[in-house]
């Protein structure tokens, strides 16, 4: 089974590879909230704390502002589950 490339937890794990899924997601949300402009834009696009997936527009916004995680020079595509 493959995950959607817009999966919030999977993206968080890419930014924080040494963390558990739960901790990576928590740390990722701390980063998102610390970027005030990004957080305002995401909430304007109806992003919520309990949302499991980004919409394509939300995903692009995050990647445009935060950049790709270290070691990644291409889009995430789909990850093996």
Q: In percent, how helical is the residue content?
A: 40-55%
Helix count from the secondary structure assignment = 4
pLDDT average, as an integer?
84
Broad shape: globular
Strand composition percent: under 5%
Report low-confidence residues grouped into runs of 5 or more: none
Main sheet, how many strands, which sense, barrel? none
Mind telling me the C-alpha Rg? 12 Å
Q: Got a strand count?
A: 0
Order of helices and strands: HHHH
**Spatial separation of the terminal alpha carbons:** 6 Å
SS-based structural class?
A: mainly alpha
Top keywords for this entry?
single chain; 81 residues; mainly alpha; 52% helix; globular
Task: Give a quick precis of the structure.
The chain is 52% helix and 0% strand. It is mainly α. The protein is globular, with a radius of gyration of 12 Å.
Question: How is this structure best described in words?
Answer:
The chain is mostly helical. It has 4 helices and no strands. It has helices at residues 8-15, 21-34, 36-44, 56-66. Helix 1 (8-15) crosses helix 2. The termini are close together. The mean pLDDT is 84.
